[in-house]
From TrEMBL:
It holds the Pfam family adh_short_C2. Keywords: Oxidoreductase. PROSITE patterns: ADH_SHORT. It comes from Rhizobium alvei. The keyword Nucleotide-binding does not apply. PANTHER family: 3-OXOACYL-(ACYL-CARRIER-PROTEIN) REDUCTASE (PTHR42879), 3-OXOACYL-[ACYL-CARRIER-PROTEIN] REDUCTASE FABG (PTHR42879:SF2). InterPro entries: NAD(P)-bd_dom_sf (IPR036291), Sc_DH/Rdtase_CS (IPR020904), SDR (IPR050259), SDR_fam (IPR002347). The lineage of its organism: Bacteria, Pseudomonadati, Pseudomonadota, Alphaproteobacteria, Hyphomicrobiales. This is SDR family NAD(P)-dependent oxidoreductase.
Length: 245
């Protein structure tokens, strides 16, 4: 008789809106128990009561709070590091405070969540880590240099975690989304104007923005048993942007 397996527990960071919320919905639909965290308390409460997912408020600039949250959650089988903030300024217009803040939220928070989750994954000899980077981390970004550096760092970090943890049955992979219609991009369009929508679509072979559910579908694969022989990869989910549209 096949051994009965307990329900997998997934933690999604930045799950209250956009791509993170789509990942929460998808992993719930795939039968996982889902905890998500976010600094948007109203948005998090609304999603939790609509879906039954467990919401934990946290601000990812507070690395000690992330460690405390990790310690209070119990074992996490699937960690999706999704929290991120973008940048809209040329490098010469930025300074050390911007660099620190962008690196803390986009990169160090993933270190802290991964650091909190790994010991139990290693003990259980099972884990799936999925990190949401960006095509900016592979191609660079005009007006997003520090963001791109953080995302490139996330890809290197993920490959290193894959190397260190394959022996424990833990996989670690990165997804590099192209432009996806989320509150992050809606805010940018509101700031810059409608032309930005067309400009971003033009970067892709498919000449459109992605939907959050299209990123969540790729996360679902990396989060599942089906990806058991896939680790250290970075998958572009970007309408072909990565192949030089
Ligand atoms: N939307 C895109 O076009 C796009 C493209 C490439 C990569 N990405 C990446 O995908 C991920 C999700 O992006 P999105 O477009 O859904 O963004 P979004 O702004 O729509 O949602 C991000 C979520 O993260 C939360 N968050 C942000 N900073 C936080 C902090 N300090 N502490 C706790 N929560 C915080 C926000 O409250 C929000 O719920 C990010 O890592 C982003 O860099 C997005």
């Amino acid at each position: 008789m096949a051994e009965e397996r307990r329900t997998r527990h997934a933690l999604v960071t930045g799950g209250a809106n956009g791509i993170g919320a789509a990942i929460v919905l998808r992993l719930l639909a795939d039968g996982m128990a889902v905890t998500f965290c976010d600094r948007d308390i109203a948005g998090g409460d609304a999603l939790a009561s609509a879906t039954g997912a467990n919401f934990r408020p946290v601000d990812a600039t507070d690395l000690a709070a992330i460690a405390a949250l990790g310690g209070s959650l119990g074992p996490v089988d699937v960690l999706v590091n999704n929290i991120g903030v973008d940048q809209h300024a040329f490098f010469t217009e930025t300074g050390p405070e911007d660099w620190r803040s962008l690196l803390t939220i986009n990169l160090e928070s993933a270190f802290a969540f991964t650091h909190a989750a790994l010991p139990a994954m290693q003990a259980n000899r099972y884990g799936r880590i999925v990190n949401i980077a960006s095509e900016a981390g592979r191609l660079g970004s005009k007006g997003g240099s520090v963001y791109a550096a953080a995302k490139a760092g996330l890809i290197g970090f993920t490959r290193s975690i894959a190397r260190e943890n394959a022996r424990y049955g833990i996989t670690a992979n990165t997804i590099a989304p192209g432009p996806v219609l989320t509150p992050m991009v809606e805010r940018a369009i509101a700031e810059v104007g409608d032309k930005l929508h067309a400009d971003m679509a033009a970067l892709t072979l498919m000449k459109r923005l992605g939907q959050p559910s299209e990123i969540a579908a790729a996360v679902a694969f990396f989060a599942s048993e089906d990806s058991s022989f896939v680790t250290g990869e970075c998958l572009g989910v970007s309408g072909g942007m990565g192949c030089g549209a």
